[in-house]
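The records we work with from here on pair a chain with its fold. Taken together, the tokens spell out the fold as the letters spell out the chain. The record below shows the convention in full.
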Amino acid sequence: GITPICVPTGVKHLHHAAVKFDIGVYFEANGHGTVVFSEKFDRVIRNAEQTNDAIKRLKLFSKVINEVVGDAMADLLIVELLLRWYGYSIESWEHDLYNDAPNVQLKIPVADRSKFKTTYEETTLLEPKGVQEKIDAFVSKYCGARAFVRPSGTENIVRVYAEAQDPKEAATLADDIACIIRELN
């Protein structure tokens, strides 16, 4: 399987994490992202004298991808090719390979966003003290739920993300966390 890596918001953080892998893939929800290849990939695959089919496919794959600008059309073409190679259609990919968890995102105005400090990957709130424990208590009420808050990088708001197996549970969880944040103002 593939283990996702969590990093702070922003392409610069995603890129920094992706280059640690032989083939690194990253995308933000807004579509920004790309695929990057390591020096080891260049040495072993792009410069390989071997001509077996797997190496040929990897070489061609790496030639279509534009690592520098993250060409969305090239990336989409690669996705389509990979789906066909593995016997999937776009429709089956959408329905069978990925299920988006019900989630709610809220923006809560605050007097001073700098009072909210998170861990590096922005998934755990360190300050104000005691708030993460309250969030965890609400999250524990729902099976398969998760939630986090983080300050905006540009506005005096705190962003709330809540996810659960049921849309109503995700909405309730987000609202409960929003109340915690509002009480701090």
Q: What stands out?
A: The chain has a mean pLDDT of 90. The chain has seven helices and seven strands.
